[in-house]
């Protein structure tokens, strides 16, 4: 006895659920990301000069989560005001020493505050 079984057709996979998942992931990452404003910080790099650099009047040490202005620990929010006061008192040049463990965000934030005071600065990196 011969049995004729129905032939099963293989249906094509639907891409709709895959596209839905991709759009949900895209929406999640877009909503969970932060939008920051990026700006440029200009400072001149070191180069060979024939004249010696001026002796710094103010020394600012930048470490990971710590700022020392002339040896006194200061919060970032008060650096701009303190530098403006020192400039009014006669300070003409600033030396910024970047510590080995300093994050780049710390350095950028400090350079932004220094840029507001328009005090000439020299940047040095602490030796390891």
How would you concisely characterize the structure shown here?
By secondary structure, this protein is α/β, with parallel strands linked by helices.
Largest sheet: 5 strands, mixed
- Portion in beta strands: 15-25%
For the biggest β-sheet, the strand order reads 3-2-1-4-5
Distance between the termini: 89 Å
Mean pLDDT: 81
Counting DSSP E segments of at least 2 residues, the number of strands comes to 5
Proportion in helices: 25-40%
Any overview of this molecule?
By secondary structure, this protein is an alpha/beta fold. The protein has a domain at 58-125. It is 32% helix and 18% strand. The protein is built from 3 helices and 5 strands, in the order αβββαβαβ. A 5-stranded mixed β-sheet has the order 3-2-1-4-5, covered by helices on one side. α2 (79-88) packs parallel to α3 (104-117).
Annotate the secondary structure layout:
Layout: H1 16-32, E1 58-63, E2 66-69, E3 72-74, H2 79-88, E4 94-98, H3 104-117, E5 121-125
Parallel strand pairs: 1-4, 4-5
Antiparallel strand pairs: 1-2, 2-3
Helix pairs in contact: 2-3
Provide keyphrases for this structure.
single chain; 3 helices; 128 residues; five-stranded mixed sheet
